[in-house]
Prior knowledge:
This protein is mainly α. It has a domain at 12-147: Tetratricopeptide repeat domain (Serine Threonine Protein Phosphatase 5, Tetratricopeptide repeat, Alpha Horseshoe), CATH 1.25.40. Helices cover 80% and strands 0% of the residues. Helix 1 packs antiparallel against helix 2, helix 2 (37-50) runs antiparallel to helix 3 and helix 6 packs antiparallel against helix 7.
Amino acid sequence: MRQILLICIVFCTQTLHAQIKDVHAYNGNKLYAKGQYKEAGAEYQAALQAKKNHETQYNLGNALYQQKNYEEANKHYESVARNTKEKSLQSISNHNIGNSYLEQKKWDEAIQYYKQSLKENPSSKDTKYNLAYAQAMKKNQDQKDNKKDQKDKDKKEDDQKDKKDQDKKDQDKKDPNNKEGDDKDKQDPQNKEEQKPQPQPSKLTKQQADQILNALNQEEKKLKEKKEKGKGQPVRLEKDW
Length: 241
């Protein structure tokens, strides 16, 4: 009798836990349908405390997902995908993990989980569509990254060239043997003209200038008279042969 009574008590307890679980799960579903995701999540948590259940854990993941708590949602999705034997539940769990990464623009991770979902349910049109979308977004992002990398590379090369040119100019200025300036002067005739000595204005007074001019005229006159006297005279020899 004791054994029968114990069994009955255990059975009743299990039934009560199942009813509690079902009530919380039911309430969670109603709240989820109303968009009250935080309250729905609390009900799903209570249901899981009463009894572990893959469907309820998946629903909890959905409630967390709707609150944009993707990290916690993925923990529940991954636990369901890892522990359940139902392919359909594995597929939708991995599909939703892909969705969470899609929302975060983590294209590589999204692609990975969509592919895993398709292994479990190859006929899912939604997963195929989302996979194609994630691949297109990744390609677009890669192209932008490549353009940015090329732009950064070109800018770096330009900066290095400008620095090299500036360093050369600075070095030329410091070099005492640099003849660049002299070469420029040789090539520029205007520089030559500027370097020629320019005539200086006379510092003599008019009276001093007239005196010098008269003196020059007297000397010129004397020289002319000497030349006139010497004209037509024979050359004198020492002996007459």
